[in-house]
Amino acid sequence: MPKIRLRHSIAVTAAALLLTACASAGEEGGSASGPADDETALADRLTQIEDAVETWIASSTITEAHAAAEAAANLVVGPNGPGYGDRDRDGAIRGDTDLGLLPGLDGTPDGIAFTAAANPCVERDVLGGSWDDPAAAWEQMLMAIDEWEPANNTMPTLASHPMRIVGWSTFTIESDSLDDAHEYGGHAQLHVAVSMSALDC
Predict the structure, then answer these.
(1) Which residue, 3, 90, 114, 165, shows the most beta carbons closer than 10 Å to its own?
(2) Whole-model pTM?
(3) How far apart are CA 102 and CA 71, in angstroms?
(4) How many Cβ atoms are within 10 Å of 15's Cβ, its own excluded?
(5) Could you give the CA distance from residue 48 to residue 64 in angstroms, rounded to a whole number?
């Protein structure tokens, strides 16, 4: 399978965002809700991602692994994030959602984790720090993915554990090896666990 590179999607998605009106945070289920609701929404999304990763690890074919990895990545980035959509090019979008876990390329919508970031562990481990420049944050992820090789694991350079899940998803979709897919899914599972533990900080 040819390598999939996500960098071009920044320009495409950013252009689309300029042509469409962005919904308000309240309309997207963002900061208009209270802290308890925000944390529930975050827990629910992380559970969805966990379920996708568990399906990925348990997959019996590479096609199943690709589909589950796609779902996990889409649930992280959302429709305004890089690479969202039919990542494995099989004609279907898994992990279809109206709102990403992380902010969009231009910062809108905020993303489910952003409204729960009063918790310092969510800010550190899920968001991975400041989102003052969302395009730059996503570009860092895309560079780490582009530079990754089996002998050069660049994922630890990303402070956001959900971004690392997107990386392992990308490597899975680029691979034709079920053994590799299961190994990459195991890495993703570790980052799901760190993200979920942030809720109890």
Answers:
(1) 165
(2) 0.84
(3) 15
(4) 10
(5) 17
